[in-house]
Amino acid sequence: MFNDYVKSLLVIFLETTGLYTLIQYPTVFGFIIYLFFHFTASILLATMVAWILKTFYKYPYRHVLILSFSIFFFLGPFAVLFGVLSVLIYKKISKAPAPVKEVNYELVFSVRILAEERRLGEGSLRFAKVKDLERVVYFTKFYHPLTVRFFKGLLFSDNDELRLLANSYLKNAEKYLQELIYELERILKSQDLGKDVKFFVCRALAFLNWNVYYLGFMEEQIAKKYLDNAKEYVIKALEIKEDPSLYMLMGRVELISGDYQKAYEHFKKALDLGMEPVKILPYLLETLYKLRDFKELKQVSEKYRGTCSVNPKRMALISVWV
Length: 322
Hints:
It is a single chain. By secondary structure, this protein is mostly helical. It has a domain at 2-93. It contains 15 helices and no strands. The chain is elongated. It starts with a helix and ends with a helix. The model is unreliable at 95-101 and 116-128 (pLDDT under 50).
């Protein structure tokens, strides 16, 4: 506080000295002297204002410094004097801490990615026949595009209970994802996060946005925004640290977008970084098929033989293509 008080007095001294010189010597030389004192006072005051806004409101120091200096320098001595008074008053009355919420680390590190959790029995939904509420309730614990389509179909059921259950399932699942995305984006924008925390936030946001797209809650035109967001957050996370699951996710995004070469590169990178082949092979083989690279497709299939089942007839067909 003492330093700020001294700086404020120095600003007032410089500004009044410059004005006094200009009044006493209304010449070009006097004007140049005034500009020197006014420039020094403006830059000193701007540093004080920029520091306050950076400390208390997390504004970028450089941008605020340039803006503050421009205001004080070009608006003249009255702007400088008003700025000094404002700084002194603010310093005297302001005791509030920075208006920034603490990072909820428990939220950051415990985000549940719905579509990545596979549960025993979800495949039986393909053979389910909607007859009563009790059977349908069983499938509310699954989160998969097939399940979402199933419950979307129930929205047009003649059974009121089934329609309510379907609406509740879809609404709660989408609300869970949207609230997490909103909260994590708020944390990312409002906090000065360390690299590790920022990585986990960006990674979680990438998978959450992918979930919204992948599960199929929305129409394709709207869902495309979430696919683009997922790609953006993957890039941000990979700028901090390499992670095989992120390369796999980027590969799936590129596969959907139709850039098969990039998808192949990302899937290979995920394998090189230690991703389990059983998780990535179906997508890698699909990408190679889209690229019509049947020679590489055969080599990869033979290299990871036994990792996942391959139909012998298809292998024979691949051999013919090669």
